[in-house]
Design a protein that fits this description.
Layout: H1 13-16, H2 20-26, E1 31-35, E2 40-42, E3 50-54, E4 58-64, E5 70-76, E6 96-101, E7 103-109, H3 110-119, H4 121-147, H5 150-165, E8 169-171, H6 174-181, H7 185-197, E9 201-204, E10 207-210, H8 213-219, H9 223-231
Antiparallel strand pairs: 1-7, 2-6, 3-7, 4-5, 4-6, 8-10, 9-10
Length: 232
């Protein structure tokens, strides 16, 4: 549905930081969109029709392999926008975007988005800043997958998810976690069970609850601190 100033509250960092004149111009082009867990917002090599600005919830960007397997390469929430390919000059995205946490977004048609980028220097500047942050996340995740143990990566992922969902409790199946971490389900089960034995998390029937955040931060690899600093 179109943006309704009486009922729609923007919480996306990029949109809320726009100068008043730019925000008022873009509002009529925004459409409120409910993000539901598991929904696909974009598929590889598909022409991008909308750009999504999340207000709440969480979106995973997944790299895909030929046999249909997926691997999470970054997480996007209210600090950003996806897909960025039209902003970077290409009509399609090489990755899949999937909702990993229920929430609300405001989306805009690609043509309108590009028009606003041409009209608003502040919007362009903030999108470039977010692009840098996203590139850092993708490159750091590649390092993390190569050098860090599954339990460290799981702790890092849980912290990043909690930060973006603004909650210490969320839904996540073993199958989804195995895709996020690039490991078999058995590896996820073992790592989660150990964190649970330590009293750091509670994991049951696809529901994860963080019980001791300081200990979880201690269990995470250094990538969490690096990515948190780069997100600022």
């Amino acid at each position: 549905m179109p943006f309704d100033a009486r009922s729609d509250l923007l919480a996306n960092t990029i949109l809320t930081a726009l100068p008043a004149a730019d925000l008022e111009r873009i509002k009529p082009k925004l459409e409120k969109f409910e993000m539901t867990f598991g929904a696909t917002l974009n598929t590889p090599n598909q022409i991008v029709e909308h750009i999504y600005f999340p207000d709440s919830g969480m979106i995973s960007l997944l790299g895909t392999l030929g046999e249909g397997s997926n691997l999470e390469i970054s997480i996007v929430a209210s600090e950003g926008a996806i897909p960025l390919c039209p902003f970077l000059g290409t009509p399609s995205s090489p990755v899949r975007a999937v909702v990993q946490g229920d929430g609300i977004a405001h989306r805009i048609k690609t043509a309108d988005f590009l028009e606003e980028c041409a009209l608003s220097q502040p919007l362009t500047k903030m999108l470039l800043h977010f692009t840098r942050s996203l590139m850092l996340q993708i490159s750091q995740c590649a390092v993390c997958f190569r050098f860090h143990m599954i339990e460290e990566r799981l702790a890092r992922w849980l912290l990043m998810s909690a930060d973006r969902m603004e909650s210490n409790e969320f839904l996540m199946t073993q199958k989804t976690l195995s895709h996020m971490l690039g490991v078999r389900r058995e590896g996820v089960t073992k790592a989660a069970s150990h964190l649970q034995k330590l009293g750091i998390i509670q994991y049951s029937r696809g529901r994860i609850q963080i019980l001791d955040r300081p200990q979880l931060e201690g269990a995470a690899c250094a990538c969490y601190a690096i990515l948190s600093a780069g997100k600022q």
